[in-house]
Design a protein that fits this description.
alpha/beta, 292 residues, 49% helix, 5-stranded parallel beta sheet
């Protein structure tokens, strides 16, 4: 029986019921310190599957977790996405050189296999949502934020964001998402989905395809299928860690992202009256001085 056929609890979100069948703790707790420059935990789940909560949880377990892409690393990831020089080793080496030993979110999850090949002792966590439909809804909230962020400067939308180098590199880097794991065309998972005949169904298919690929390619004893609603117990058992006294973090970004989208639109237009006021003041000042 194929790995993907054995572990389908993530489709319904009933991960706890399939935990014993899908995951077994290796029992071999790595005695090395958590600050070594190698990846120990790979989150292979797509963004919007609770990766911020997992990041917070892993940090409480004394890991140092890399989430998304830091601005200083954006150029390297953009180069990897464009195929202009940087390799997966390059971007992963930059992560470990900064002291990170766990990774979360896109685009790191797009390189889960490369990470596992480079760091064969790492454990893999596949974060999932209750249903594909819930993931689609959350993904679309993030995509609206990204759409607003990526809009080019124009007289109708005078955004200065695209003039910031790392933001431009982030835009380029996002085209990588979905290309490595499920073979999508560049940018489809970020932008192209809007033009599909049934965008929601297409996105749900990509979510299922990604998860199925992870389950089929990660060794059974290295994989935890994890819904953050399950809390500490399965995560700590899998990683060989004691359960913390603190409750498992619950980081709900959807509301923050929706608010940030509105703020970005406001800021885009807010600088115009400020500049106009300064220009009017300067004009008045120059005219008054010239008459004097």
């Amino acid at each position: 029986m194929k790995e993907a056929d054995r572990c389908l609890g993530w489709r319904t979100g009933k991960c706890q019921t399939v935990f014993s069948d899908c995951v077994s703790s290796s029992g071999n707790v790595d005695t090395a310190t958590e600050t070594e420059t190698k990846i120990k935990v790979i989150c292979a789940g797509l963004g919007r599957t609770g990766t911020k909560s997992l990041q917070a949880g892993l940090d409480l377990l004394n890991y140092k977790t890399y989430h998304f892409v830091s601005p200083k690393d954006a150029a390297g990831w953009a180069s990897l996405a464009e195929g202009t020089g940087a390799t997966s080793d390059d971007v992963l080496d930059a992560i470990t050189a900064a002291g990170y030993n766990a990774t979360c979110d896109n685009p790191c999850c797009d390189l889960y296999l490369e990470q596992l090949q480079k760091f064969p002792d790492a454990q893999v966590i596949l974060t999932v949502r209750d249903t594909p439909e819930k993931w689609v809804s959350s993904w679309k909230i993030l995509m609206e934020f990204i759409r607003v962020q990526e809009l080019p400067f124009s007289l109708l939308y005078p955004s200065f964001i695209q003039f910031i180098p790392f933001m431009k590199n982030w835009n380029t880097m996002r085209s990588l998402m979905g290309t490595r794991v499920t073979g999508l065309d560049k940018g489809d998972l970020i932008r192209g989905w809007r033009h599909k005949e049934d965008p929601d169904a297409w996105l749900a298919t990509q979510y299922n395809a990604h998860n199925t690929k992870v389950i089929a390619t990660v060794p059974r004893n290295k994989l935890l299928i994890f819904n953050v609603n399950q809390g500490w117990a399965p995560l700590c058992k899998f990683l060989g860690k004691p359960v913390p006294d603190d409750p498992f973090p619950n980081v709900n970004e959807s509301g923050d992202i929706a608010s940030a989208t509105i703020v970005m639109k406001v800021v885009t237009y807010a600088w115009i009256p400020i500049v106009a006021s300064i220009a009017a003041f300067m004009r008045s000042y120059i005219l008054s001085n010239s008459k004097a």
